[in-house]
């Protein structure tokens, strides 16, 4: 067989299996330390920059959830993986332009990066033809700086205030408001970032009791995120290795 992008080489499979075992152990240990049930935390394998064959290797090792942050790359990879007979649950986790909404809802079951009313509306319209709603997480800005993406808690901005974005998602029949997502700001200690996020999430759930998902924590800080209530961790480099480009 030729070495196509969906051929899984045995040495690569072994490497990924080792990474996966380490990450699963970290998650289990973090859950135990936090007194949480392991079943409460879903690991999303972030496969950006890595080929479809890595997705197939992960799926073969029992990983059901994959994350991507760029539509063009994700759309092609999802199609390749599907052609190989595998359909993981795709989470879109990157900044999303409204004109990409239509493409993203063709393969993504979850969009974690909804951070404006205008994007929520575009996604809601794009998702109308689907047989199942798209689960939407509102991405929250932990430091309140909307320039870096994320809806802002406590802000009355009609486009980027957290309450307005949540209302727009909740009001779209083809979307399901599933919860919140955040990335810890680079210059904040993860401890401080996720403690702040936990406060925001608690207040959010009081208003939207069904929106229980909390997507927080990556390769470097998943333990802290789990301690502060993360239900989804998004893990890339600890599974697949360092990415060649920073993004
Ligand atoms: C790339 C990315 C991740 C994974 O980061 P790692 O440090 O490689 O685990 C998680 N979340 C988002 C939003 C990302 O873009």
TrEMBL record:
Q: Which PROSITE patterns match?
A: UPF0001
Locate the N6-(pyridoxal phosphate)lysine modifications and list their residues.
Answer: 48
Cofactor dependency? pyridoxal 5'-phosphate
Q: Which residues form the Alanine racemase N-terminal domain?
A: 24-244
**Keywords per UniProt:** Pyridoxal phosphate
| Molecular-function GO terms, alphabetical | pyridoxal phosphate binding
Keyword hit for NADP: no
Q: What Gene3D superfamilies does the record tag this protein with? A: Alanine racemase
Q: Which SUPFAM superfamilies match?
A: PLP-binding barrel
InterPro entries in UniProt:
Ala_racemase_N, PLP-binding_barrel, PyrdxlP_homeostasis
Tell me, what's a Pfam family for it? Answer: Ala_racemase_N
Protein's job: Pyridoxal 5'-phosphate (PLP)-binding protein, which is involved in PLP homeostasis.
Q: Which family does it belong to?
A: Belongs to the pyridoxal phosphate-binding protein YggS/PROSC family.
* NCBIfam families documented for this protein: YggS family pyridoxal phosphate-dependent enzyme (TIGR00044)
Annotated HAMAP family: PLP_homeostasis
**What's the name of the protein?**
Pyridoxal phosphate homeostasis protein
Q: Which organism is it from?
A: Micromonospora krabiensis
């Amino acid at each position: 067989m030729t070495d196509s992008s969906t051929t899984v080489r045995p040495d690569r499979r072994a490497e990924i299996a080792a990474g996966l075992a380490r990450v699963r152990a970290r998650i289990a240990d973090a859950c135990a330390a936090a007194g949480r049930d392991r079943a409460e935390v879903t690991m999303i394998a972030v496969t950006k920059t890595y080929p479809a064959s890595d997705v197939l290797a992960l799926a073969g090792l029992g990983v059901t959830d994959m994350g991507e942050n760029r539509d063009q790359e994700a759309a092609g990879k999802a199609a390749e993986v599907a052609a190989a007979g595998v359909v993981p649950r795709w989470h879109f986790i990157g900044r999303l332009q409204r004109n990409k909404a239509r493409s993203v809802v063709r393969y993504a079951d979850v969009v974690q990066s909804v951070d404006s009313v205008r994007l929520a509306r575009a996604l809601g319209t794009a998702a109308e033809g689907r047989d199942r709603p798209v689960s939407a997480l509102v991405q929250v800005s932990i430091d309140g700086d909307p320039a870096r993406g994320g809806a802002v808690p406590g802000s009355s901005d009609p486009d980027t205030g957290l309450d307005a974005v949540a209302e727009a998602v909740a009001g779209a029949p083809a979307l399901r408001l599933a919860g919140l997502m955040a990335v810890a700001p680079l210059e904040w200690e993860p401890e401080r970032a996720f403690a702040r996020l936990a406060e925001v999430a608690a207040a959010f759930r009081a208003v939207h009791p069904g929106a229980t998902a909390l997507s927080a924590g990556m390769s470097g800080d998943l333990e802290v995120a789990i301690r502060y209530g993360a239900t989804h961790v998004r893990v890339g480099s600890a599974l697949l290795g360092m990415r060649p480009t920073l993004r």
